Amino acid sequence: MSPSPLLHVHAVRKQFGKQVTAAGVDLQVANGEFFTMLGPSGSGKSTILRMIAGLEHPDSGRILINGQDVTDLPPWRRDLGMVFQQYANFPHMTVAQNIAYGLRRRKLDREAVRKRVSELLDLVSLPGFEERPVTRLSGGEQQRVAIARALAPRPRLLLLDEPLSALDEKIRREMQAQLKDIQRVTGTAFVYVTHDQEEALTMSDRVAVLNWGHLVQVDEPHALFRHPRTKFVATFFRGSNVVEGKLVGQGRSSIFECSAFRVALPELPSKFAHPPAVAIRGEDLRINGHPSPEDITFDAVLERVVYRGVYTDYQLRLVDGQVVTASATSGQNLPAGQKVQVAVRPEGITPLQAEPA
Amino acid sequence: MMKPWTRILVWLCLAGVLLFLYAPLFPPLLLAIQDPATGQLTLQNFGTIHSDPTLVGALMNSIILAAIVGVAAPLLALAAAQAVRSFGIPRLIITVILLPLFIPGVSMGVSTSLFFNLTGIDPSLLTMAVVQTLWALPFAFLIILTVMSGFDTLYLEAAYTCGANRAQAFREIELPQIAPGISGAATFSVILSFNETIRTAVVQGGNNTIQTFIWSRYQQVGLTPNMYALMSLIIAVTLLLILVLVALGRKQQPAT
After folding, report:
1. Which ipTM value was assigned to this complex?
2. What are phi and psi of B87, to 5 degrees?
3. Closest approach of A59 to chain B, Cα-based (Å)
């Protein structure tokens, strides 16, 4: 029998009035894992996190930590840490008092507390900040104090609710790298909630994409990015194209057909999207290249060229009017309005499932 | 930029309003520092306050009552405000709770007195304390509710996830942040208790407070210089307490 996972959320349901924020959610997080819940606002990701924390109670289902059922335990008995979007540092305390707050309940002597606080300030790169009033810090500094405070009692699990959303772009990127480092150094399991796809992809070991209280797909970042399972996941990540068509034939030899091309799908999902659709990443579409024999090729009209710095986007109209966008770093100088040949490798075409209901 | 004469006019108006507000306070002050026989300036009226045992007794009662009300009203108000937040009680019900504020003092006092009569409770300092607490409670409740609405309950959630239970989180996180409101409510309750006359007079029995004493003396025989001295002191103390309130309110503003 495999050891029980660090966190096990089992068939958890939660409803606020008519809005379902968790529709029978199942997920497991392993020790030391960086697990991210990604979704638009209202997808239920924060509510699920708050139920894990014990700040909300599920309508049904169980939450287990290290195999122990904590569903009915208050937050202060769950031995976990939490970081909030708005920092929530206690304004009437210094930095050191904030960080030491979680240590109050552990009968530590003053020297041990002082040592732990300075250890954590080193960890979050704020050495010597002990006596500063917490209200005088910048947003990034405040959030690092909040992270240190949550980690001080060495929780087995750290919950982070959009911790970088209130910060500006540059600091957010720095903090992403730093958070990942902190996670690696401490070996604490992180459950991270965000609506930012880049944040999810750069930091996580696994990402769960949520929509309307459902876990739509749980995968490693690469798999999620390359092979979205549903239309929702595909369109959530920038640069993915969804092409609709129809299925010809049944069983293992199904062929997906649209006006521009047809492709044999090696493995069919159990519940195919309706209408049938496939996802193709923009960078997998090659314009006027030298297609190899196994490539699928089709004609399209180049409608618009959008320069985006590293990438250039080419908006292509297929024969039946569907529009896809190809991205390339080469920056070919192609005039709009021209007919072009597009090539894609068959493995770049991902069949899409129906959304979970 | 304002024209100079407009500016002068504004200041004159302000001076007029202040004069109107504070002029009535001056006669007792002047009588307090005047020798009743010779009309000369003197401080001896203040010295003779303690020579009147009824007056001293009334003063003691006022102080005891103010202490009780100053503690009881904020505590009850805090409990009520916490309940309002926890149970998400709508604004309409809060307004209904505050309605006793608008009932005339005499009606309120008489009905309380009848209530005590029917339940067989004799007039005492306790009944006076109850009436005054009822009077101060809505004010204290409003003050504490206002301060608490400025307190983000996210701090409590942060404390819970740091391992603090409800009582610890309240004591260590919420209380220090809403303390200015609670001391404000206490100060206000003390002032209200000290100044309350009508409701108290109805349930006072044989006990006097400074206010009921001055009121009855004024109606029966007129006031003596040492009572003017006492009134001056009360006015001074009240103004002082108000200044403390303002200072607390200023401290409560977040440092920027």
Report:
1. 0.89
2. -95, 0
3. 19
